[in-house]
Task: inverse folding
């Protein structure tokens, strides 16, 4: 005689909740063998244990419940091999995505650790040769206030996630040089996310390799003007001609700290040494 198990017993054996079995029943994936009409209690036969094992293993592998239900209606070696082969493709894509995400997190941690070395060295001006890089950008709408910049940044992240672009988990803005010379230091025209090269992506700006002057601004974004004034003065004193708009890369920002006084922004200009 076939042995029957209560829903609680089966849930305990399989280390799942009773609610999971009830849900599987409701969606037509796994019905009880018998329901007591007097009290509605669900009972499962020992013959059903293999079927539940199959369902739970497929779920662990990553199959959606809809596909599991379709597979369980009638399956054999051929249909199982086909389903598993397709799932390997899905798993490989997820592994690739996770590897990319991991590399971005490693990059972000490295930036933060590097920035911490500059604690107490605010506004240290550096001359550096930068490598070619790419920025996925979104135009900032007028009047180019911090609110519009924030919205543009959110759009960048949203669109990059939707298009699965190879971005780094860092944001930044571009401020036109003419606005900076007028003292309009926070009126950015573009928000951007650094990314790997992607020939198929739209709204991508290429920054060439070149000679740059930069410094790290520590503190709130509203106070960034003092860093620009020091950087502009440095260029004048040393005969450096600024040949680009300003590119600001967020090192520490709202993604890494609640305290705006801990924010670190790298300001970067391309230069020539022909004099200004």
Result:
């Amino acid at each position: 005689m076939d042995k029957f198990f209560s829903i609680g017993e089966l849930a305990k054996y399989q280390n799942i909740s009773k609610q999971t079995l009830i849900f599987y029943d409701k969606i037509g994936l796994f019905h009880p063998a018998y329901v007591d009409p007097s009290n509605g209690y669900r009972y499962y036969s020992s013959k059903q244990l293999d079927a539940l094992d199959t369902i739970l293993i497929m779920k662990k592998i990553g199959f959606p419940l809809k596909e599991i239900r379709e597979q369980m209606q009638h399956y054999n070696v051929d249909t199982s091999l086909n389903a598993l082969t397709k799932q390997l493709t899905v798993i490989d894509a997820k592994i690739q995505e996770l590897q990319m995400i991991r590399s971005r997190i490693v990059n972000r941690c490295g930036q933060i650790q590097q920035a911490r070395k500059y604690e107490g060295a605010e506004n240290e001006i550096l001359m550096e040769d930068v490598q070619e890089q790419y920025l996925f950008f979104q135009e900032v709408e007028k009047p180019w206030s911090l609110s519009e910049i924030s919205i543009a940044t959110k759009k960048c992240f949203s669109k990059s996630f939707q298009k699965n672009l190879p971005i780094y988990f860092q944001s930044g803005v571009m401020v036109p040089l003419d606005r900076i010379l007028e003292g309009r230091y926070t009126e950015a025209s573009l928000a951007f996310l650094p990314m790997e090269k992607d020939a198929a992506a739209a709204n991508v700006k290429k920054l060439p390799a070149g000679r740059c002057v930069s410094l790290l601004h520590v503190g709130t974004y509203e106070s960034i003007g003092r860093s620009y004034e020091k950087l502009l003065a440095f260029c004048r004193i040393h005969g450096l001609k600024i040949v680009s708009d300003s590119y600001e890369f967020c090192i520490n920002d709202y993604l890494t700290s609640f305290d705006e006084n801990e924010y670190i922004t790298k300001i970067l200009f391309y230069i020539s040494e022909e004099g200004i």
